[in-house]
Amino acid sequence: MLPRDRLLAVVVAVVWGLNFPATALALEHFPPFLLAAIRFTLLAVPTVLLVPRPRIPFGRLLLVGLGLGVLQFAFLYLGMAAGLPSGLASLVLQASAPFTVVLAGVFLRERLTGRQVIGVTIAVGALAAIAVHRAQAAALLPVVLALCGALGWAIGNVATRRAGASNPLHLTLWWSIVPPVPMAVLSFVVEGPDRIGRAVGTAFTAEALPADLGLLYIVLVATLVGYGIWSRLMAAYPSSTVAPFSMLVPVVGVLASWLAFGEVPDVVEVVAGAVVVAAVLWSSRPARRPEVTLVPVPTGSVPVDAPAPAVSPGAGDARR
């Protein structure tokens, strides 16, 4: 993975880490399904009018939207609305990385290097340490809902890789047309017209300003910038190379939630977060190729019909 692209993957992790406190602010005013419906409607309308559709089968576009848009955010928002703290939500959702690696191995036949296996294992272990340490902060059901969201994200990752869109930003915008209708239906059925009316009717009041700002961050930065870069990376590299970077998100999410809501991390979380960062960056480094060395042969010292000169040990299949 090129250094520039590794830096872009880290930028996505920061953008998505800040997305969790922004989502928590938005959920203080908007119910979860309505928030998702509004979020993707704000993207879908200008996309249909202004952006060319990616030249991929509609079924693949639908699968990307169902995974990244519907499954991920329906379950994540439900979990956070049910009491999952934003910092812990950013952590649990990163189960998408090992989910992606497994699904990519099954459906895309991607092979892991030894470095990736070790790095992902260490990062997952560090995340598990943080989860165990913070498990008392949330009940079991919100955590399970967030894990279902992580599985949806993994499905979307693999579908993005399989889609092979030539313009990842266009793909990011066009899969946003999938979630609005199912999310609006879920909002109407589960949350009810009265709750929807109150949230929409008071959306432009001073009390709703923090939620509105959180919604704008989700739409403009987390989705356009974050998923635009992420889709580009998923199209350019194997899923198993890109997905581990998502495990950097909870490090940013925990720190941002500490600053925004006073969810103070302790020594265990800080140390484990540092381990996650180190493991992900180490596992993404390309393996060094062994150097090839040939024994120098003086010009004219070997007759034309003589056997080829000996090659020093370790030269492999190198030719003169």
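The above is record 1. Record 2 follows with the same two-line structure.
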Amino acid sequence: MDMPLPATALPAGPPAELPPFLVARPERQSVPLVFASPHSGAHYSAEFLAEARLDPTALRRSEDSFVDELFAAAPAHGAPLLTATFPRVFCDANREPWELDPGMFDGPLPAWVNSASPRVGAGLGTIARIVASGETVYRHKLAFAEAEARIRHYWQPYHTALASLIAETREAFGCCLLIDCHSMPAHPAHGANPADFVLGDAHGTACAPRAPRLVEETLGGMGYRTRRNDPYAGGYVTRHYGRPREGVHALQIEVARSLYMNEARVERAPGMQPLTRDLSRLIGVLARADWSALRP
């Protein structure tokens, strides 16, 4: 059972047997689209909270809170929506499976672990050392067995489900366009001209140009400001699954949190409803588009 927490700190506690991911499927998939939200999970177990030195609200600021709700219209437009239920700070599904910081563990790591990536150096590997504000997550060092259990029981099932959805879609339609859904805090480099959305296609290598162009045109027509690949060009999901030559295209969409939530309190703001409506319109545009040119 989850430990008692202030009502504003965490969502109502889900059952302990909650699976590592949820898939909302349409009655019949009618479009070559898959939507995924790897960072909106908000199930914090009592065991994890006991290990953490931070309060629940501080931990939640690493989430892409409510992003699964923003894109919840996907099944109504004929596309599945995959959502992780586990939090990003617990296990990051948008990293390689074994990006681990050796300084976090109470013993040596296996030689095959990637301990030298820039993400590990920044404290944001598969098991994060810090939260977005730079504060250390844990009270003490972890056993490697703990990281291994999280990766095997959370990361791997999520990616098995994602790979299956992509394969099913490609088999049915000859191609697949994966929309990987995220949110972003205000970025200081953009100063007085922040973007409402940043689209990441790994600088053109993960997705045919038609998809980001259509998203830009649609959002721009609604009055939103978009930027491409700056500062988010796409993480592991975009780069790993985006293989245009094989008919699989991946586009990361980052939504500015200021549009729909109070970041300090991790609460929905009045902008949540109109933004959700606009993103439903975007999903509808993508669902009606002809994606046959994405086939290899």
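The mean pLDDT is 93.
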